[in-house]
Amino acid sequence: MGRFLTTHQALKILHSHYITDSLQMVVRWIREGKLPAERTKNRRDGYLILDTDLDEFIEERMPGMIQMREVYQETWMYEPSPLEHKKHVSFSPTKTSPNLEERMSVQEKRIEDLAKHFELHKKEHMSSQTKIQELLNKLIRQGLNGKGKEKEKKENTPLQPVLIAWEEFIHQCKELLVPEEKKEHEKTIQILNKYYEDLTEGGAIKKEYLTVKNKIRCPYNDKKSGDLKKLLKETVQPLVDEYFNKEELPHPKRIKKGEIEDGEQESLKFPDGDSKGTSVVEKNKFHSQKS
C-alpha cells in the first residue's frame, strides 16, 4: 500500500517532473477524473492522492521520466554508506568498488535504452506533424480551387432528363388551383392537358425547355425554376385564370435569340445533334428546309 499525498505535495512532484506548476491545474485534473484522488473529511484540506496513482499519471504524461530520474539519482547522486565512512572509503569517479562499477554500467545501459526510446518517439512525432501539415496544405489547396472545379464540373455535366407522368402532372396542378369548382371543370382539364403536351414529350421535359443550369422554362412565359413543382405553382393558376373564359388554348411562346441566357444555347440543340439554330423558330425553319 502506497502513501497518500496532499495536493501541494503532488504539485511539488509534478513540478519536478516538468508537468505543471499550477495547483488549479492539479485540482482540475482531479475533478475531470484524470488524476485519481479522494476527498478528505475536512473539505478545506482538499484531496489526498495515492503516490502510485501519481506515478502512473506522470508516466502517462511523460513516458520514461520517472525511470530517468531514478537512474540519475542512483548514478550521480550516490552517497557512501556509514560503513564505507568508517572504513574511510571515499567515492570518486577514479576509484570505485566493483559493485558500484557494475551498477553504473547497468544504469548507463538503461539510460541508453531510454534515450533510444525518446528518439524513436520524437521521430514518430515529427513524422505525424509532417503528415498533418501536408494534409492541411492539401485541404487548403482544395478549398481555394474547389469553387472553380465545382463550376467546371457543373458546366461539363450533361443535361439530365426530367420525367413526369401525365397523372402526376395533373394531380400536382389541381392541388395548386383555386377555387375548388375550377379543379374538375372541363375547360381546366383542357388547359392542363395542353400545358402537359407543350411542356413534355414521351413523359420527359422537352430539351428546348431545359437550360444548361438544369432549370425548367415555362412554355408560355419567361418563368424558370430548378424545381418543377415550384414552376407549376408560379404558372398554373395564372394560366388557367387567363384562358378559363376563352375559347382558345395557350400557345407556346417563341424563344428569341436575345432572350437566351449565357450558357443556355446548348439546351436548344436540334434532336439530331445539329446546333445551327438557337431558338424554336429557327429549329422549325431548319427542319422545314431539310424536308
Mean pLDDT: 76
Low-confidence stretches: 83-96, 258-291
- Based on secondary structure, the structural category is mainly alpha
Radius of gyration: 43 Å
Amino-to-carboxy terminus distance: 104 Å
How is the largest sheet built, in terms of strand order?
1-3-2
Major sheet summary line = 3 strands, antiparallel
Would you report the number of β strands? Answer: 7
Order of helices and strands: EHHEEHHHHHHHEEEEHH
Estimated share of beta-strand residues: 5-15%
Helical amount: 55-70%
Q: What overall geometry do the principal axes of the alpha carbons give?
A: elongated
Determine the number of helices (DSSP H or I, runs of at least 4 residues).
Answer: 11
Fold and architecture overview:
The chain is mainly α and 291 residues long. It is 56% helix and 6% strand. The chain contains eleven helices and seven strands. The chain has helices at 7-16, 23-31, 51-61, 65-76, 82-86, 98-156, 166-176, 180-183, 186-199, 228-243, 280-290, and strands at residues 4-6, 38-39, 47-50, 200-201, 204-205, 216-217, 224-225. Strands 1-3-2 form a three-stranded antiparallel sheet. Strand 6 and strand 7 form a beta hairpin. Helix 4 (65-76) packs antiparallel against helix 6 (98-156) and helix 9 packs across helix 10. The longest helix is centred in the middle third of the chain and has 59 residues, at 98-156. Mean pLDDT is 76; it is low at 83-96 and 258-291.
